[in-house]
Amino acid sequence: MTLNINSSLDVTYLSQVYGDDASIISMIFEAFVSDSYPRWMGLKQTLDAGNLAEAASVVHGIKPSFTMTGITWLRPKVEEMERAIKANADADTLFNFYAEISAELGPLIPILEEESKRLASL
């Protein structure tokens, strides 16, 4: 069965890792939308507060979910942001990372939501 996953995601990676298991992919997408994305959005407040230890923990914790969800091209940017946080980079640098990643991530959330629902119904 071909799942025809939205090409905005890394379909090659998803196929290699999950094959045609629609239910697993649906759960992965749902978990990203319901857990990882809200944690990402909350990261801005953590950065605003200057809590770099917590920011590093959040980024480190959600970093694998970018790859697992087929958003593989953002993972290196998230890793770079994590290194910058751990190196105590200035606030402007960290906010630039956050803004750049958020700008690419935001449009993918409706796609993940739609794909999760569609795949769950297969």
Query: Low-confidence parts lasting 5 or more residues at pLDDT below 50?
Result: none
Write down the overall geometry. Answer: elongated
Number of helices: 6
SSE ordering = HHHHHH
Mean pLDDT score: 97
Distance between the termini: 10 Å
Number of strands: 0
Helix content: over 70%
Name the beta content range: under 5%
Query: Main sheet?
Result: none
CATH class membership: Mainly Alpha
Describe what you observe in this structure.
It comes from Dyadobacter helix. This is Hpt domain-containing protein. The protein is mainly alpha-helical and 122 residues long. The protein has one domain (11-115): Four Helix Bundle (Hemerythrin (Met), subunit A). Helix content is 75%, strand content 0%. Helix 2 runs antiparallel to helix 3 (52-68), helix 3 (52-68) runs antiparallel to helix 4 and helix 4 runs antiparallel to helix 5. The longest helix is centred in the first third of the chain and has 27 residues, at 22-48. The mean pLDDT is 97.
